[in-house]
Amino acid sequence: MSFLVAVVVVLAVLTVLNLLLSSAIIRLLNEQRRSVTPALPAVGTEIGSFEVTDADGTTVTDRELDDALVAFLSPTCGPCQRLAGQLTEPTVAFVLDGGDRDKAVEYAAGLGPAVRVAFVGDRSPVSAAFNAGDVTPTLIRVRDRRIAAAGHDLDAVRRQHV
Hints:
The chain has helices at 2-35, 78-83, 101-108, 125-130, 154-160; strands at 51-53, 59-61, 67-73, 91-96, 115-120, 138-143, 146-151. By secondary structure, it is of the alpha/beta class. A five-stranded mixed sheet has the order 5-4-3-6-7. Helix 2 (78-83) links the parallel strand 3 (67-73) and strand 4. This is Thioredoxin domain-containing protein.
């Protein structure tokens, strides 16, 4: 009988230790997730100069962006896949091809008629002009060549933009 009580006590202690350790791991993972939220370009920052050719062969420059929604997207990011059907307003999308142009073209085909697409490489001059880095998705509302709002989803950009 005393052997069974000892086994139950040991199992109870191990169970409590397991719960405490699991709780600590979950708390640590949540803290790490919050700390790696990618930075966004600062609102009010003037965009730099750039010139790139879009998928139709037309030149896109910073001078055209007086009031525009700009998106940095990648065919390999999950949130970008969800955005494909949501971009219903005129948008200039810079699709990071990651060296796989065919996959980028396939992704861009699902962006819809309101989206003007230009394919860019990682660490492109366009990303540098917006100080956007290579974090996707990044959505930027541009007004008068300045960043009026920035976010990783449409709702965040719409909430900031008045």
